[in-house]
Amino acid sequence: EMVSNSVQHSADLSPYARAFKDIITVEEVQKFKPHPDVYYHLAKKVGKSREQMGDVWLVSGNPFDVVGAKAVGMKTCLVDRGGSGWSDGLIEGEAGRPDLVVKGLDEVVEGVRRIRL
Asked: Are 7 and 20 in contact (CB under 8 A)?
């Protein structure tokens, strides 16, 4: 319920609150990002298997979320509100970089569409 309240009242998220069909947390997994089980749990909740991780997008403003999701084969979008660019060096080269970097949530859908075409 705390996460739902955050979405409803967040200045950044509340305009998009109706777009959320479900909110998935790590409570069932009892592990935290960037543990792989967290991302596998997300995929399962949206009806995807481990073999289909590349069909699932993770959108986050946190580099460690992106690195964890990339490590299990997910597509990733970094929301770079501050405009500082990608700065995480945990995984060198393109393998560790997000598939998409946007400045705000309003750019995510169009960015994902461009990549999927």
From this structure: yes
